[in-house]
Amino acid sequence: KHDWLLPAHTKFPKGRTLAIVVLDGWGEQIPDQYNAIHVANTPTMDALKKGAPEHWRLIRAHGQAVGLPTDEDMGNSEVGHNALGAGRIFEQGAKLVDSALSTGKLFHGNGFRYIQECFAKGTLHFIGLLSDGGVHSRYDQLQALMKGCAANGARRIRLHVLTDGRDVLDETSFKFVEQLESDLRELRKHGVDALIASGGGRMYVTMDRYENDWNVVKRGWDAQVLGEAPHKFKSALEALTSLKAENPKFNDQYCPPFVIVDHGGKAVGPILDGDAVVTFNFRADRMIMLAKALEYADFNKFDRVRVPRIHYAGMLQYDGELKLPGKYLVSPPEIERTSGEYLAKNGLRTFACSETVKFGHVTFFWNGNRSGLFNDKLETYVEIQSDQGITFNEKPGMKALEIGRKAQDAILSGKYDQVRVNLPNGDMVGHTGDMKATVFGCEAADKAVKMILDAVKKVGGIYLVTADHGNAEDMVKRNPKTGQPLLDKDGNIQILTSHTCAPVPIAIGGPGLIPKVRFRTDLPHAGLANVAATMMNLLGFEAPADYEPSLVEVAN
Ligand code: 3PG
Ligand code: CO
């Protein structure tokens, strides 16, 4: 049996309140006019950077440092918060799916056999994000999956695609749909009846998270399962072209739902009894709500109208605690013994808070994709309801100040050892590509940081401020050699809505920090996974031996 007790640290004392602030989407980049964080007035974060050099540094937040396949992979909140909370680097979904596909193991597992049972008589449906962003899904994986299913007996395939524009450039949906159509043509040549059946933009159709707005999932359900949508087209390319022509504000993220119909006007691919369904995203947060709708017999979030009897498998199991979905093609990373569980087992009290759209990041992802509390006597998780039905450039302040206030109250209450928050602005507003709004959002996040640092000062505590990945610090696509913004074919600067590969800052301080604490200088390649051990030290404990090393030491 595992020994949960963490030994007391010989140099770092116990008993200080530790505030942990994760600025979502806040990286370090060239300080120019396209860097929203640089343009923003952020006196608090600036002061941390200009303060003691031994208390501020950069750490890696992308690629292999967070368990992604390559160092070309930008960071994201799932892998970032997993690394922050777990203190170790686990091979993440993207990588696990890659190896399950390349070894062919995927096609021999229980999950695959389960969907295969429907191949002879039913249709195989794929639902997921059509993108090569590598955050939620990757197109080459979908390609390999379709091919492998056809080789293993699938005779009829229908695709329900969600357009991206958030992890990849806006309007790349056209290119992905063309690619998909060509791959489906190839399948048809080999006797597989393969078609796109429905579509919609990821932020408006299906991919909501943390139950912010069930209408998003319902729109998808109507199109994918019932074959109903306000827009009907003969092909997905026609859908995108017409919808864009109709609406000057058209973008991939918010594309309205559509279904593809045959010459008689009948939907070509509703989900019916006896069909198999695969959600091909590997990332959890934005698939869980759909997984519940597909899997739960008892379900009251919206009227499903018709609930087909299907064999459903996720690319991964999205929630280990809920065992959702029950069947999956690839086993998820087993992220166990997270820092949150250690703190609870050692009697430390934790407060965690964010607004809905990031709430699961500081709880579910932080705790290794695990729902719920470890110990309800010791932990309090507070969710502030996010604004619904808007794009976040409309209200770029989001709930930053409310989160700041909740954290302040928690710190001043003296009831908690660790107070942990996520401030979403840099990321959520950064994803809109709206520079002005993102600047405003970063200023709001900076104000919230100040509120938290002020409270830390009052109670003699310690703060640790960091970020999960880059986003707002780079609002344009750049020439990798010159750093200059790239232009599109009309001569306009290409707006970058996605995350980046930038490193992120980490700063420590507060009156509770004993003298001579400093960042070690022998860990130049440290990343987010080094933060958990750091935090345990600052709370007065040694970290578990297999955690990535702590960033701090006490000088002699
Ligand atoms: C999203 O899901 O909003 C983006 O694909 C990634 O953003 P996140 O990793 O910051 O949540
Ligand atoms: Co993001």
From TrEMBL:
Signal peptide: none annotated. Pfam families: iPGM_N, Metalloenzyme. Residues 97-319 form the BPG-independent PGAM N-terminal domain. GO terms for biological process: glucose catabolic process; glycolytic process; response to carbon dioxide; stomatal movement. Keywords: Glycolysis, Isomerase, Manganese, Metal-binding. It catalyses: (2R)-2-phosphoglycerate = (2R)-3-phosphoglycerate. Gene3D superfamilies: Alkaline Phosphatase, subunit A, BPG-independent phosphoglycerate mutase, domain B. Residues 18-542 form the Metalloenzyme domain. GO terms for molecular function: manganese ion binding; phosphoglycerate mutase activity. Its EC number is 5.4.2.12. The keyword Oxidoreductase does not apply. It comes from the Eukaryota. CDD domains: iPGM. Its cofactor is Mn(2+). One of its GO terms (cellular component) is cytoplasm. Pathway: Carbohydrate degradation; glycolysis; pyruvate from D-glyceraldehyde 3-phosphate: step 3/5. The keyword Metal-binding applies. InterPro entries: Alkaline_phosphatase_core_sf (IPR017850), BPG-indep_PGM_N (IPR011258), Metalloenzyme (IPR006124), PGAM_B_sf (IPR036646), Pgm_bpd_ind (IPR005995). NCBIfam families: pgm_bpd_ind. Belongs to the BPG-independent phosphoglycerate mutase family. This is phosphoglycerate mutase (2,3-diphosphoglycerate-independent). It comes from Ceratopteris richardii (Triangle waterfern).
